[in-house]
Amino acid sequence: MPLELTRTSFRATLIALIVTTSVVAGGRLVFGIQNGLRNGFRMRWDNAWLITAYLVFMVISGFQVGRTGHLFRYIDGFSGKTYPGWEKDGLRVTELLFFETTGLWITLWSVKFSLLSLYKTLMAQVPLYTRLWWAVVVYCTIS
Question: Which residues in the chain land under pLDDT 70?
Answer without folding.
Answer: 1-3, 35-43
